[in-house]
């Protein structure tokens, strides 16, 4: 495999001082982080939903993993008996598709999209549905 010099003089696709990891697209975030850490042990891995706002500041040891595939069944918190309270059919969909499906069936839902592994509040909230996402959908790079 050939490498292409990046703006920092480092290799984009292979070797020491890599700045991009196209091979991790489609991997779970945890697996992708392990691949990146082999090349860049001091990397500060940040896992984010692909539609989540991100700062534009340049941080030389930060690598963001943008994820967007529903990883586990979203469940409504504190849902009364007899009402739809889970959506197993959205597992494997993009978060945007899952949001549309859930909101079409539960318009008053307070839906949150959260990368798997990110800490969440333990409190229970009426109408809250969390969608957990965990598959890398964009090529991660340093910055």
Quickly list its features.
elongated; two-stranded parallel sheet; single chain; alpha/beta; 143 residues; protease inhibitor
Structure, described:
The protein has 143 residues and is α/β, with parallel strands linked by helices. The longest helix is centred in the first third of the chain and has 11 residues, at 29-39. The strands form two sheets. Strands 1-2 form a two-stranded parallel sheet. Strands 3-4 form a two-stranded parallel ribbon. 27% of the residues are buried. It has two helices and four strands.
Architecture blueprint of SSEs:
Blueprint: H1 29-39, E1 44-49, E2 62-67, H2 95-105, E3 110-115, E4 128-133
How would you write the strand order of the largest sheet? 1-2
| Radius of gyration based on Cα positions | 18 Å
Strand and helix order? HEEHEE
The biggest beta sheet reads: 2 strands, parallel
Question: How many helices?
Answer: 2
């Amino acid at each position: 495999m050939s490498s292409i010099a990046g703006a920092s003089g480092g290799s984009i696709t292979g070797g020491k001082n890599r700045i991009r990891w196209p091979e991790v697209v489609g991997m779970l975030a945890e697996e992708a982080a392990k691949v990146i850490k082999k090349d860049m042990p001091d990397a500060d891995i940040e896992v984010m939903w692909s539609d989540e706002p991100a700062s534009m500041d340049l941080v030389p040891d930060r690598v963001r993993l943008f994820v967007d595939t529903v990883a586990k069944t979203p469940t409504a918190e504190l849902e009364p008996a007899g009402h739809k309270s889970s959506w197993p059919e959205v597992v494997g969909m993009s978060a945007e598709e899952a949001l549309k499906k859930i909101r079409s069936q539960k318009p008053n839902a307070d839906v949150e999209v959260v990368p798997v592994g990110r800490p969440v509040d333990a409190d229970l909230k009426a109408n809250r549905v969390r969608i957990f996402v965990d598959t890398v959908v964009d090529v991660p790079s340093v910055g």
